[in-house]
């Protein structure tokens, strides 16, 4: 048995459960060792049968005198057994586990752990944990501190315990240590095997914390080491395109001066950092993080313009069609007058033919053309562009570039590593700029994205007012509707009413629910107003039309699903009503709230929830007083934990299982060591080997 064996190729029992185990993040045998108990049952009190006391949790050991299935009047199956030791006998019952009579036989020596109850005058054990003793020195499920694991259907703690117990006896497991004694001593860390042994089968509770600390260190250390290594490889091995800067300063200034606003200091700093990267002969790999409305688009636009001035192309990918269209409108407004050909592609696999750098499309109206391709066609009908904006459609094989210089990915958390890789391969080490409004607390950014350079827009453009936010109590729903109607009429403005996703993503069920809510609002609540409906399952043309009507003021209220979450920019909308607000993270709610407050008019956000949980209400209420995305993200991190918060951002293997993102001290300690190791990587054979073994936990763009 080898620890690196994938579960699907391991023994019969593991194979059978491979799919379920994946749900627990267990892909190979070694992962079982790192499946950490979340609590322990204390079965360490071993007692003679005659001495047991009612109410106490004990372990008794004895011989099975008898065991049988009984049936109750209402059809329940009860398993009854009697166990004796040299001091007495005790009755044991289990419920609805008829197979037990096949597992436990008369005459077996058995160990039982559980709580002692009284049945009439006699003590009894009900549904105790049991273990047939074959080796007098081995207790896995009873008679000790017994680990309880995160479980899933078909995978019980008992099953996991036995697997892990076996793995712990392997020589390979005993030799897992890869950190030097020196490093361990410096950081006060236990030896690895000792830690694993302790975390699964501790002798006492005091030991557990130290074992956990060691495993947490490893988790963060390896994550950071990987990121640093990637960063080094990126910087040392890749040859990038160096773009001229000084000779284009005049043109760049011309663009900045044509803007109806001046850049914030934060934007200026980000632009400078990006320009410096673009000038260098190493490909840029930068994350631009900025709250909703902090003005990331213009920063990217300036970068794309510089690339254009250097006679190269840029591609800009956004997660939704609506957003891609909006970006296309904004960016072509800015760049087209300067001679830049800005094109749009949405919808997939509809491009006809391609040559390098240009894409032929039969005609913009032909059936085979992309759903939406706005751009420039030359006389031969060839579609060409300096800047290509689009959805994931830009990933299509048919889209090619002659001289791709820059890849921009908006709302990068919506895309996977592989999609970024596809785009990058369309050029020769193009520069990469990823953008996100998900405010990632610095500790997380350092851990997960240690290989990226980070620019943060931590300053909002001047003149933005705060969106007044209320968590609306249930009883005030009707009043809130009346207030909305009055408000819209008085201020000549518009509102969003946001229905929740019923399932994780925009399923038909979600669409149905939104449609129903739309009908209800139209008929019963706002018969005097004009309502529109927008959801992700609508045809793009229909979406366009609806949004356009809303933008032109032909609707007072837009009822929608969270498709509006990212990007939409309709300044005349001043009210955002969010149903089932508890389903969203604070940062996400803040994003949604960012759809309003985009003009000088006072804007409002109304949060509705059916939840009675005090914690939920407290969480939602924090939006009333917090108005900075990063602060909200950090709060969410404390209240809900990173798993929840970044649930959609990180799939499968990418979450921390043992360590916490809140543990800044640990993260810094691990980072310091990771940097040290990286400086003389070749000297650390053990670590290098370990790094090459671990599954790719990559979440950052490369
Ligand atoms: P986000 O960072 O959320 O992508 P956008 O780039 O969409 O934000 O910008 C939001 C709005 O703010 C846009 O209408 C944009 O024109 C405007 N904007 C950007 N920078 C500034 C600035 N420095 N001053 C005023 N308005 C700005
Ligand atoms: Mg944006």
Write a structural description.
The protein is of the alpha/beta class and 702 residues long. Among the domains are: 45-143, OB fold (Dihydrolipoamide Acetyltransferase, E2P) (Beta Barrel), CATH 2.40.50; 246-457, 3-Layer(aba) Sandwich (Rossmann fold), CATH 3.40.50.300; 468-626, 3-Layer(aba) Sandwich (Rossmann fold). Helix content is 37%, strand content 20%. It contains 24 helices and 26 strands. The protein has an eight-stranded mixed β-sheet with strand order 14-11-17-10-18-19-9-20, sandwiched between helices. A six-stranded parallel β-sheet has the order 21-26-25-22-24-23, with helices on both faces. Helix 10 (249-258) packs antiparallel against helix 12 and helix 20 runs antiparallel to helix 21 (629-640). The radius of gyration is 31 Å and the shape is globular. The two termini are 34 Å apart. Mean pLDDT is 85; it is low at 348-372, 643-654 and 697-702. Residues 296-297, 410, 567 line the site of magnesium ion (MG).
According to CATH, the fold-level topology of the domain at 246-457 is: Rossmann fold
CATH class of the domain at 246-457 reads: Alpha Beta
CATH superfamily of the domain at 246-457, called what? P-loop containing nucleotide triphosphate hydrolases
Q: Give the bound compounds.
A: adenosine-5'-diphosphate, magnesium ion
Provide mean pLDDT, rounded: 85
Please describe the biggest sheet, giving its number of strands, its sense, and whether it closes into a barrel.
8 strands, mixed
CATH architecture of the domain at 246-457, by name, is 3-Layer(aba) Sandwich
Beginning-to-end CA distance, first to last residue: 34 Å
Helix proportion range: 25-40%
Structural class: alpha/beta
How many separate helices?
24
Overall body shape: globular
């Amino acid at each position: 048995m080898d620890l690196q064996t994938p579960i699907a190729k391991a023994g019969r029992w593991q194979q059978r459960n491979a799919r379920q185990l994946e749900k627990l993040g267990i892909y190979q045998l070694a992962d079982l060792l790192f499946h950490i108990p979340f609590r322990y049952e204390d079965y360490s009190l071993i007692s003679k049968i005659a001495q047991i006391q009612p109410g106490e949790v004990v372990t008794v050991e004895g011989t099975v005198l008898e065991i049988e299935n009984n049936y109750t009047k209402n059809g329940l199956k009860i398993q009854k057994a009697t166990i004796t030791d040299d001091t007495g006998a005790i009755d044991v019952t289990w419920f609805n586990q008829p197979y037990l009579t096949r597992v436990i036989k008369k005459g077996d020596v058995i160990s039982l752990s559980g709580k002692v109850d009284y049945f009439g005058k006699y003590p009894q054990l009900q549904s105790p944990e049991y273990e047939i003793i074959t080796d007098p020195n081995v207790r896995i499920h009873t008679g000790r501190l017994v680990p309880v694991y995160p479980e899933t259907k078909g995978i019980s703690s008992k099953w996991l315990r036995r697997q892990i117990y076996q793995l712990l006896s392997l020589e390979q497991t005993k030799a897992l240590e890869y950190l030097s004694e020196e490093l361990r001593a410096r950081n006060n860390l236990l030896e690895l095997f000792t830690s694993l042994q302790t975390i699964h089968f501790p002798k006492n509770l005091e030991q557990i914390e130290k074992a956990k600390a060691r495993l947490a260190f490893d988790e963060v250390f390896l994550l950071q080491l990987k990121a640093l290594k990637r960063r080094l490889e990126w910087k040392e091995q890749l040859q990038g395109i160096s773009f001229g800067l000084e000779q284009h300063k005049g043109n760049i200034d011309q663009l900045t001066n044509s803007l109806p606003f001046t850049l914030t200091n934060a934007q200026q700093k980000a632009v400078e950092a990006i320009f410096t990267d673009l000038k260098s002969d190493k490909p840029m790999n930068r994350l631009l993080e900025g709250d909703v409305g902090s003005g990331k688009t213009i920063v990217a636009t300036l970068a794309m313009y510089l690339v254009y001035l250097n006679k190269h192309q840029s591609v800009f990918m956004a997660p939704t069609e609506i957003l891609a269209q909006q970006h296309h409108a904004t960016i072509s407004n800015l760049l087209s007058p300067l001679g830049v050909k800005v094109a749009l592609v949405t919808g997939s696999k509809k491009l006809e033919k391609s040559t390098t750098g240009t894409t032929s499309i039969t005609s913009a109206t032909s059936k085979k053309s992309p759903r939406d391709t706005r751009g420039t066609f030359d006389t031969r009908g060839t579609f060409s562009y300096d800047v290509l904006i689009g959805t994931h459609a830009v990933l299509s094989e048919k889209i090619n570039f002659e001289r791709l210089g820059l890849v921009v990915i908006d709302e990068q958390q919506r895309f996977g590593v592989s999609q970024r890789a596809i785009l990058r391969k369309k050029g020769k080490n193009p520069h990469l700029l990823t953008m996100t409004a998900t405010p990632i607390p610095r500790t997380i950014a350092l851990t997960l994205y240690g290989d990226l350079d980070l620019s943060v827009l931590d300053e909002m453009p001047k003149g933005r007012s705060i969106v007044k936010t209320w968590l609306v109590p249930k009883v005030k729903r009707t009043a809130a509707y009346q207030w909305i109607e009055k408000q819209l009429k008085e201020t000549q403005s518009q509102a969003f009413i946001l229905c929740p996703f019923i399932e994780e993503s925009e399923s038909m069920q979600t669409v149905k629910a939104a449609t129903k809510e739309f009908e209800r609002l139209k008929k019963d609540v706002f018969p005097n107003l004009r309502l529109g409906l927008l959801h992700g399952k609508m045809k793009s043309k229909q979406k366009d039309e609806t949004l356009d009507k809303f933008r032109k003021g032909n609707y007072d209220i837009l009822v929608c699903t969270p498709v509006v979450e990212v990007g939409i920019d309709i300044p005349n909308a001043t009210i955002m009503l969010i149903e089932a607000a508890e389903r969203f993270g604070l940062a996400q709610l803040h994003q949604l709230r960012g759809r309003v407050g985009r003009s000088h008019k006072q804007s409002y956000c109304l949060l509705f929830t059916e939840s009675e949980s005090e914690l939920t209400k407290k969480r939602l209420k924090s939006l009333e007083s917090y108005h900075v995305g990063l602060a909200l993200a950090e709060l969410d991190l404390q209240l809900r934990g990173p798993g929840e918060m970044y649930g959609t951002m990180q799939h499968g293997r990418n979450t921390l299982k043992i360590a916490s993102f809140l543990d800044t001290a640990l993260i810094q300690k691990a980072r310091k060591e990771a940097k040290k190791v990286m400086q003389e990587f070749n000297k650390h054979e053990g670590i290098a080997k370990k790094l090459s073994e671990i599954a790719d936990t990559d979440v950052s763009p490369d």
